Amino acid sequence: MMEVTSIATFECEIVSKEFKLIGQSITANYPQSFPNAAIEVQVEFLKKVDEIKNCKNKKVLLSPYMCNDIMATYFACLEVEEIADVPEDMVGFAIPLMKYAKVSCSNKTIDKGYSKIFEWMGENGYSQKWYDKSFPIEIYYLEGAEEEIVEILIPINE
């Protein structure tokens, strides 16, 4: 029997990033409406990416989110050079320079990716930064394959 391999590496590291984004969002009950609500907003957004004029890469979908135990707001966005010419049914916003714990997984191993990054953060003394201009972010590298690379970024306290 052939061994099933995955493109997920589950490598963890600390990165510093800032983002300028244009996209759209959905707010839904959490956790019962997820992951369906997230998939819905991503599918709808991907039909409109050509409306965003100054994006860096149409094949990299960024999904920041805000969540508590009641509701979640989940975004589907493209990174842009400047927040300008925002289509009418979308929002443009900047996420300031932030330190993140990052894990590399895939669209088929996101649950394991979250388990790995929080385990790694705990082992290395990092804690998640809540609110204060921060969002956890899922970054999807869209290649049209059945399994695609996903990075999870969790903002950390310094």
Overview in brief:
With about 160 residues, this protein is α+β, with helices and mostly antiparallel strands. Helix content is about 15%, strand content about 40%.
Structure description:
There is one protein chain. The chain is an alpha+beta fold. The protein has a single domain, classed as Alpha-Beta Barrel (Multidrug-efflux Transporter 1 Regulator Bmrr, Chain A). Helix content is 16%, strand content 40%. It has helices at 36-46, 110-123, and strands at 12-29, 60-67, 71-79, 91-106, 137-141, 149-155. A six-stranded antiparallel beta barrel has the order 1-3-2-5-6-4. It is globular, with a radius of gyration of 16 Å. The model has no long low-confidence stretch (mean pLDDT 94). Residues 10-157 form the AraC effector-binding domain. It holds the Pfam family Cass2.
